[in-house]
Write a structure and sequence with these properties.
The protein is mainly α. About 75% of the residues lie in helices and about 0% in strands.
Length: about 70
């Protein structure tokens, strides 16, 4: 069975995208992603440092795809 941490990055991207669609200012996206990562990480049993790493990964993945696609 796969560990639940694998699903954290795509889940974070989706939740932050929903938050942006509901009016979250773009400047708050990184902070929101990190906060959600630490918060959700607590519930799946990872420490806050790993939560930060997953949050930064989600931000980096999203900005990398956005830069490549040119959206």
């Amino acid at each position: 069975m796969q560990s639940p941490e694998i699903l954290l990055v795509p889940l974070l991207i989706g939740l932050v995208e929903v938050a942006k669609q509901t009016g979250l200012p773009v400047r708050w996206v990184p902070v929101t992603t990190l906060a959600l990562a630490v918060f959700l990480g607590y519930f799946i049993g990872i420490d806050w440092i790993q939560g930060l790493v997953f949050g930064l990964s989600a931000c980096g993945l999203w900005s990398g795809v956005k830069a490549t696609v040119g959206r």
